[in-house]
Specification:
- The protein is built from three helices and 18 strands.
- By secondary structure, it is mostly beta strands.
- The strands form four sheets. It has a five-stranded antiparallel sheet, with no helix packed on it. The protein has a five-stranded antiparallel sheet with strand order 8-7-6-9-10, with no helix packed on it.
- A hairpin with a 3-residue loop joins strand 6 and strand 7.
Length: 280
Amino acid sequence: MINVGQINRLEVVKIAEFGVFLDAGEYGTTLLPNRFVPEGIEIGQQVDVFLYFDSENQIAATTEQPVAKVGEWGLMKIEGVNSTGAFAGWGIKGKDLLIPFSEQRGRLSVGQNILVYVYTDKASGRIVGTTKFNKWLDKTPARYTRNEQVDLIIAERSELGFKAIVNGRHWGMIFPSDVFGKLFIGKKLKGYIKHIREDGKIDLALQKVGTAKMDDLSTKIIEALEKKGGFLPLSDKSSPEAIFAEFRTSKGTFKKTIGALYKQGLLVIEADGIRLVKAD
């Protein structure tokens, strides 16, 4: 089955001077131009290509990777605007992604970098983009558990914090107290479920919550000490940036964790770092 807007593995059925023709099933054949053709390709071999509709609404193939395929979000730059809508750089040479005016939450302008969801319009069959995410999210109950790891895409910034897309299906919020490291619109990262409220809204964290995050970090700290000869130049006096660079955690969590490890007799805290206590 051919899936337009996705990567497809197609068979080479004809070789021409300007490229190769691929069997695109119900769409007939499609040309893969020479600049995308793998060296030494022969009839009968298969090649992975991204399929889309060109400006004349004909099936087209490329080995270029789009910023986002159908059903995905991606950060794109607005390259042009006309009477139809805005056109975003899609990562496909010569083919920008249309974002119709009806699919814009606010009017877009050239040069803007925005998060876009890519989908196939049922009425026209065209692949288009939208910045109206609500109709694609929160359509199913949020059945997550506390400290469950999830995939996040940072979508918006507000006075409350950062609004994120959870596993491509739900909205979630990262409050300022749970933010560390650099977050920006379009960033993809791992996060954790902090709390699901009675109204179904999801609170998120960038590290495990409660004792679970300390247990997880404890293991990472001990392993890092063992790998680096028993000493790390990090302590409760280190900057949040230095701690985050090494362990991807907040300074507060790091201080609590090394404090607990100190009480357990597993490490000592020195002026310039922490040292692993060697077993007798």
